[in-house]
Every structure is written in structure tokens, then in C-alpha cells.
């Protein structure tokens, strides 16, 4: 939990990544060096979002061994870009510019079907400027012959997350279950925020879920339908005709354009398992 | 004739021509459209389900906007023994092709194609879908 605390409360952009060819978990330092050289070269060409101050970019590639589902999963790989203002070498204040990490939690579906030379790390999460994401991404794509694609989350999957995460036990006072809906085909776009008291939501989910530890599509549907009809009764608006775009609970917050925020380290692996599944289905 | 739900208003019953084919449209982006179709199905006479009903699922081009679960749609097709067609209304080519398909189905259901009845065509479509 200590190790991964820095992953919490940051907004991560999600990508799916196809298996990496001839990637070795033992060569992370080499990769860090090579990536650093690549970034420096790109900067020379004027492609690394330059600007005023000359930034010396330091690359660190490390492993996060705890972030995996089983021993069959490849350990998560973290890439961090920090800057050191080359003007003041003496105080060398390092500022973290960008982080990105690859991970695979319970990705047996994919890793079992992939030839020997390939490593499965289907989920990639990035935080920081897009220009750095694209430089790091292109280095990985060139070096390991893989392909990055933004991972979108459908309203169907978001409602699964709403139901799953509502059922999770949280120690401190939980925050409200928040659902954001976007109403299509209107002259001015309209967003509806529906906030439900966490205890009410949990009580509702507890009456719906039949077997603890198991969730069915039917149960998710009933849960969401109850929330929708409650809303309709009060506001005469049919949420089921709108698009669910964001789900926020005490565990995590997810947006359909492919953004996630982890809020509880206890459930980090659980959420990653779900995201890994989504990434794998996008790859296939 | 286009309607947002069934039953059709009874005031115009005497003016309405015979109905040969009912195409229920389900927008995969709207859970409400599925619920609406499910509710409307209750108002359809049983005889229509002998080949004169089909389900048209739209919005299938954008998987990431999916609010309706595919299994629910397949189940609907199975329970009501009617074919399920998919189309993306925003793509002109697909739109035209789907319209042509529906027109062809309508011709059969109206009895304009000799030798092929709505029922036989319906079971033909179902068998090929199972394969």
C-alpha cells in the first residue's frame, strides 16, 4: 500500500496496449537510458514541447511488483519523467513531469494465447502532458512493436462499475455515489449530475445482489433501473434515454472518455482487474 | 407509418391500412428504447409473430456508446422468434442497404412475392442466424 499510494487521487488517462515483443523485465534500467536518449534527441528536433527554460529530462523505469493479479501476470512497469533545471545544477530540484505505467491484473485470457516472445501488459495509464505521453508511446511502439489506443468505457461498463463499487465496504465515511449523464441531441448540451447518499446506494445494492462476491448483468440492470425510476418519479426525466458518462464513488471515479482516478488503495487491484479486462477486449 | 410506442391511437383505426410488417427499432445507446420496445410488444397480436415482426438495432457503429447489453437483444429475438437486424443510421451506405432489406421483407410479408410466405421467410432467416 505504501508503494502505490502515489497512484491515488491522480487522474490517469487510459490506453490499451497490444503485447510487447521481446520486452524483458530485467532490462528496465537499459530501457530508461534508451528512452532518455530518445527524448533528448526529439527535443533537439524541437518536438518535445520546448518552451522557455531548458529542461533536462531524467527518465526512471522501474517495476511495481505488487500490482498484479497472480504470478502469471507480468509485474507492472512504471515510467517517470522528471525535470532538473539545467541552469541550477547545484540545487537540482527534481520535479516529476509525467508518469505512465503498464500493468496487467488477471490477464490470463490474453497471456495464455500469446506466443513466447511477447509480454502482456495490456493496460497503460498516463498522467501528465500529452506531448510526453506521445513521445514515450512512440518509443515503446517503435522498440517493442506494440500499438497504443485510447481506452473508452461504455455506459454499460460504467454501470457495472457503479454497482460493483457501491457494494464495496469503506472504512471512513464514504462519499456519495455520483452519476453524470449527458443528454444528446439538444441545441445546448446538458449534463445531469445525480448524487445518491452512499448508505442508501449500498442498502439498495444489498437488496439486489443475491450472492455476495458474484454480480450478474441482471442485478446491475435492476440496481440502475431503481435509480432511474426514482429520478423519474421526482424529475420526470428518463435517465435511461441519456448517456451515462461518469461514475464516482469512494473507491474510484471513471469517465467514459477513458479517465480513471483511484481513491482507495485497498481496492486498487480490483479496479485494475476490471480495467485490464476492458483493455483486453479492446485489443481483440 | 412511424410510431414512438404501441398501442397505436384507436381513433384512427378505421383509416389505417392493413399492417404487414412491424419493425421495432432499438437504439443501442438508449436503454429506454429497449424498455419501450419491450412494453410495446405486449400490444402486438400473436399472429404478427409468424414472420411479420423484426427488430432493428441502430447505433451499432459506436461500441463505446453501448448502453444496452447484446444478450438482452438476442434473447428478445429468441423469445419472439423474430429476426434481429443491425444497422448504423449515420452511414448512408448501411442505411440504404437496410432500407432495401426491410422493403424486401415487406414485399414478402404483404404477399407480393409468389411462392414465399412471411412464415417461411421468417424461419429461413432464423435458421441462417443460428448457423
From TrEMBL, chain A:
<keyword id="KW-0137">Centromere</keyword>
<keyword id="KW-0158">Chromosome</keyword>
<protein>
    <recommendedName>
        <fullName>Centromere protein L</fullName>
    </recommendedName>
</protein>
<dbReference type="InterPro" id="IPR025204">
    <property type="entry name" value="CENP-L"/>
</dbReference>
<dbReference type="Pfam" id="PF13092">
    <property type="entry name" value="CENP-L"/>
</dbReference>
<dbReference type="GO" id="GO:0000775">
    <property type="term" value="C:chromosome, centromeric region"/>
</dbReference>
<dbReference type="GO" id="GO:0005634">
    <property type="term" value="C:nucleus"/>
</dbReference>
<comment type="similarity">
    <text>Belongs to the CENP-L/IML3 family.</text>
</comment>
<keyword id="KW-0539">Nucleus</keyword>
TrEMBL record, chain B:
<dbReference type="Pfam" id="PF11111">
    <property type="entry name" value="CENP-M"/>
</dbReference>
<keyword id="KW-0158">Chromosome</keyword>
<keyword id="KW-0539">Nucleus</keyword>
<dbReference type="InterPro" id="IPR027417">
    <property type="entry name" value="P-loop_NTPase"/>
</dbReference>
<keyword id="KW-0137">Centromere</keyword>
<dbReference type="InterPro" id="IPR020987">
    <property type="entry name" value="Centromere_Cenp-M"/>
</dbReference>
<dbReference type="GO" id="GO:0005634">
    <property type="term" value="C:nucleus"/>
</dbReference>
<dbReference type="GO" id="GO:0000775">
    <property type="term" value="C:chromosome, centromeric region"/>
</dbReference>
<protein>
    <recommendedName>
        <fullName>Centromere protein M</fullName>
    </recommendedName>
</protein>
